Each structure stands twice: as structure tokens, then as C-alpha cells.
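QA checklist item 7 of 12: single-chain prediction sanity check.
[x] sequence parsed
[x] length recorded as 141
[x] structure emitted
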Amino acid sequence: MKSSDTLLTPREAAAAVGVSYPTVKHWILTGKLKTIKTPGGHHRIPGAALKRYLPPIPKPPGAASRERFRNVSGRNQLVGTIVEVKISGLLAKVVLEIGQPPRAQRITSIITADAVREMQLRKGQTAAALMKSTEVMITRV
């Protein structure tokens, strides 16, 4: 959307808010939407007047968007410490150490490099390996 001090036509305002042109005209005529009239009598809507009609801004990608994955139906979950993260092209290798040395075990998963960056996986962090069939998925804990 344009800056809050920009004046929009009713059609531009409708497009910015995601409603039809007749809806914006109805809001104007019923007084729900304040406008400024041009010398020719045309309505112009200040960008600030549209703020309450705008849809909520989605959260940026990152750790907060991954919270919904913490409670999953998969029961094969092993929590451990990340001991290696190696990105190579589109893929990344993530190695988790499960348990305490000397009896610790390692689980390796190949996931996308984008997933590693999105979850901000780093050596030393706690993460969980979720196993389903032959796949191992990593979730940051």
C-alpha cells in the first residue's frame, strides 16, 4: 500500500483493502470512510483512513512461524544437541547427538538449506529429530 499521506481514488482504495469498488463507495456515502473532495467533486481517500480496513500483516518467516510444529502427532521424537550443520548448495546436513557421552548416539538428517536458515539452526542448539518411515525431520526445540 502507498504511504499514509497519499490520496487514493476509490478504485485504488478498494484494491488496496481487497474489497469491491461499490463497497468503498458505500462506505464513503454512509460516512464510514472519510474522504477529501477535489475541486471537481471527486472523492480522494487518505491512506491513513484505510488502516482499519487493511488485513493483518502476516508474521515474517522464522522461528515464530515454526512454533506450530512443536506439537506434532509423530511419536518417534528424539531430542538432542546439534553437533554439525553443513550447508552445500540446496541441501544441508544436520547431525544431532542424542544422549550423553560415552553412550551418545548420532542421527544425521539431510534437509533443505532454506529450512536450516529459516530455523536458524546452529551447532550447540537443542533440536528434535522426528522420524517417520525412512525420513528424519529436524525441529528446533
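[x] summary fact logged: The chain has two domains: 7-53, 63-140.
[ ] second reviewer sign-off
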